[in-house]
Each structure stands twice: as C-alpha cells, then as structure tokens.
Amino acid sequence: MNGPLQRLGRWVGSHLVLAGGLLVLLYMFVPIFVVVLMSFNDPDSRLIYRFDGFTLKNWADPCAPDGMCGALSRSIQIGLLATVVATLLGTLMAFALVRHRFHGRSAANLGIFLPMASPEIVMGSSLLALFVAAGFGGRLGFWTILIAHIMFCLSFVVVTVRARLAGLDDNLEQAAMDLYATEVQTFRRVTLPLVFPGILGAALLSFSLSFDDFIITNLNAGNTTTFPMYVWGVAQRGVPMQVNVVGTVMFLVSVVIVVAVEVRRRRQERVLAG
C-alpha cells in the first residue's frame, strides 16, 4: 500500500515543474505589475517610490513633466529609423551569408557576432573615438546616436533572419519554380512569407534594443536627451509617475503585437490544414 508520504512525494514530483514555471513567470512579471500599478499612483512625495493613492491624472496628462515627451518622441524616432535601416541591411546581409558562397564568408559569419559579444561601454567609447576622429566631436546628437544604434542592431537582425533562412526548406522554392513561377514571384509568394516572421522578430528586437539603450547613447549623444537618459537624470530627483505610464503603454503595445502575430500564425496553420 502506498503511504501518505509516498503519495505526497508523487504529488510534489508531478507538480514541481509546474510550480517552478509559475515562480519563474512571477519573477519575470512582478516588475511589470509594479510599473502598471505605479502608473495610477498619486504619490505624496516624488522622493518616495510607494503607492499612496489611486489617480488617473498621470494618464490624463502624460506630458506633464518638463522634457519627458520630447525625450520620448526622440527615442521613438531614433528607434524607428534604426529599425528600418538595420532590418533592411541586416536582411540583405543574411540572405547573402546563407544563399551565396564568396571569399571571406566565414570571417563575415564570425565578425557579425563581435558587436553582440562586445560590452556596451567598449562599443560606446569606440564609437565616440570614431566620431571625434572623423570631426564630429562638437556635433554629437541625433544622427550620431542613430548611426550607433543602426550599428549594434545590425548584428541582431543578421543573426535572427539568418537562423530563419537556414531552416527554410529549399524544395518549396524549387517546387514554385517548377510550376513556372519567376524568381521574383517565387521570392514574393514563397520565400518572403516564410522568412517574414524572422524579419518581423528582428525588427521588434531592434526597436526594443534601440529604445532601451543608455550606455552607448549616453557616450555619443552630446546635448541630446533620449527617454532612458531622461529617466536616469530625473531619478536623482524622484521619478515622475508618468514614466510608468510610458512603460505601461510600451508593454501593452508589445502584447498586442505578439498576440496579433500569434493569431495570424494560427489562421495560416488552419488554412494550410484545411
């Protein structure tokens, strides 16, 4: 007969993985819950980060703190431009590395990882030295930040799209061309739809990295202030609750994008299965 201790042991064993997973998820989402909660906070003092009362005024006037929306707008502009350029160049580079054989291909495959492996302080100081040597020392700002962000986002795009391309079944493209599709038609109707999830993921990753970056940006920004630099600056005098509104909105936008992509993927699977 099974004793109570044996039954307890089996129950713990069967639920241990589930409990561990839930704890990990809780650990990951607690900071997000705090940010959402604080976006409705009406603090008695900006120097004490605690929930003192519920209010909607932070959402009603998110641009109340001086300079916050300007810095936010600047970060979004840089993030979007860096995402577009890095995604375009990185996708082309990924196709070249996967589909073509050329001299130096192995070195390129290795070199593409170096910006990802380098500490941000090293990359930021190297870029600063480059800009100063090129005569941009007194003109650091929006464009030098953009160039720096494109550079470090490029590696992540190449690696992400290349992984998607490497797993692509060539027989699908050959089948399309056997059915008299031209190269352009094959690319537009077969290759691009199959690679698109990887490109979209790389673009989202690039925007997130660009929007979030502080170290490289701080070294190459001059007098320009981005949103992470604004938060770092005001943190010494007390973080305004509107910063949590921005964080909550960014989180909700990310959730909507992920859910939309997942819904689209399931619809495509149902169409293919039907």
Automatic annotation (TrEMBL):
Keywords: Cell membrane, Membrane, Transmembrane, Transmembrane helix, Transport. GO terms for biological process: transmembrane transport. Its main location: membrane. It comes from the Bacteria. SUPFAM superfamilies: MetI-like. It is a multi-pass membrane protein. CDD domains: TM_PBP2. The chain crosses the membrane at residues 12-40, 76-98, 110-134, 140-161, 190-211, 241-261. Residues 72-261 form the ABC transmembrane type-1 domain. GO terms for cellular component: plasma membrane. The keyword Transmembrane applies. Belongs to the binding-protein-dependent transport system permease family. CysTW subfamily. This is ABC-type spermidine/putrescine transport system permease subunit II. It comes from Nocardioides aurantiacus. The lineage of its organism: Bacteria, Bacillati, Actinomycetota, Actinomycetes, Propionibacteriales.
